[in-house]
């Protein structure tokens, strides 16, 4: 079945398409303290909740990129409702293909939970750092190992030991690139339970309401496998955090 249909079905009750609470996302928005009308870019912007909040708080302009047509549709509707007339545009495209009109011009560049776009956490930090201006924000959401994963979990899930790093290594990756780590927002088990549980709920609802859909059995089977993995191993093995970095001011040539 279409990958983006699957995620549309399983995330239809999600406001935030990551295992982070609404309160923590609000805290992120507060910490950024962007100037009015700042230019921002969000890669894999999902349903646009982060950008909608930035538009409400700071009147930002900029762009949200997502490869899912369902997410772009939902993000545009959300923005019309929450911040009509804002200077934000949503584009349906692979974020790795985006070429800015002016590199190093954004006040903020973010990618929350989709580092696969740039081949991993390090590649994401590199790409976002190139997009922001001196003193700008680089904000990344990334999983991490809470503990060493069991071999059986790796075998069944398809993850490798190298799929994720630790929380400390994720944080250090930005500092190794000359970025300043100023804060992290770490998901709790309750955040994870809500994120995962809403997928189970949405899949069950969809199966009941659309028994004629030929994709129902695959949706139900995939969600059942993911639920089993989460309850048996994932809940105690994988964490998630938003890492807030800042590009140091660039020194003028003398």
What's the helix and strand layout?
Elements: H1 3-10, H2 22-32, E1 39-43, H3 49-58, E2 61-66, H4 69-82, E3 87-92, E4 106-112, H5 121-131, E5 132-145, H6 151-157, H7 167-175, E6 180-186, H8 189-209, H9 216-237, E7 238-246
Parallel strand pairs: 1-2, 1-4, 2-3, 4-5
Antiparallel strand pairs: 5-7, 6-7
Helix pairs in contact: 2-3, 3-4, 8-9
What would a concise description of this structure say?
With 254 residues, the chain is an alpha/beta fold. Helix content is 44%, strand content 21%.
* Average residue-wise pLDDT: 96
What is the CATH architecture descriptor of one domain?
Answer: 3-Layer(aba) Sandwich
Helix % is 40-55%
Give the radius of gyration. Answer: 19 Å
CATH homologous superfamily of one domain, by name? Vaccinia Virus protein VP39
Write down the CATH class of one domain. Answer: Alpha Beta
- How much beta, percentage-wise? 15-25%
CATH topology of one domain: Rossmann fold
Number of helices, counting only DSSP H or I runs of 4 residues or more: 9
Walk me through this protein's architecture.
Helices cover 44% and strands 21% of the residues. It has helices at residues 3-10, 22-32, 49-58, 69-82, 121-131, 151-157, 167-175, 189-209, 216-237, and strands at 39-43, 61-66, 87-92, 106-112, 132-145, 180-186, 238-246. Strands 3-2-1-4-5-7-6 form a 7-stranded mixed beta sheet, sandwiched between helices. Helix 3 (49-58) links the parallel strand 1 (39-43) and strand 2. The longest helix is centred in the C-terminal third of the chain and has 22 residues, at 216-237. It is globular and about 55 Å long.
């Amino acid at each position: 079945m279409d990958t983006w249909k699957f995620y549309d079905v399983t995330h239809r009750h999600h406001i935030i398409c990551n295992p982070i609470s609404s309160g923590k996302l609000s805290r992120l928005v507060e910490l950024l303290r962007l100037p009015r009308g700042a230019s921002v870019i969000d890669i894999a912007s999902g349903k646009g909740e982060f950008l909608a909040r930035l538009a409400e708080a700071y009147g930002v302009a900029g762009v949200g990129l997502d490869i899912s047509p369902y997410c772009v549709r939902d993000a545009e509707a959300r923005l019309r409702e929450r911040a009509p007339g804002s200077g934000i545009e949503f584009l349906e495209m692979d974020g790795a293909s985006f070429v800015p009109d002016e590199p190093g011009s954004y006040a903020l560049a973010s990618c929350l939970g989709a580092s696969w776009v740039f081949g991993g956490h390090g590649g994401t930090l590199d790409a976002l750092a190139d997009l922001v201006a001196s003193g700008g924000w680089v904000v990344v959401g990334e999983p991490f190992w809470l503990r060493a994963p069991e071999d059986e979990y790796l075998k069944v899930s398809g993850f490798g030991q190298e799929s994720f790093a630790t929380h400390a290594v994720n944080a250090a990756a930005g500092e190794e690139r000359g970025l300043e780590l100023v804060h992290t927002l770490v998901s709790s088990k309750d955040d994870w339970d809500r994120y995962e549980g809403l997928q189970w709920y949405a899949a069950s609802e969809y199966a009941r309401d659309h028994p004629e859909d030929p994709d129902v059995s695959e949706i139900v089977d995939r969600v059942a496998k993911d639920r089993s993995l989460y309850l048996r191993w994932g809940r105690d093995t994988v964490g998630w955090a938003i890492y807030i970095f800042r590009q140091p001011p660039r020194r003028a040539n003398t």
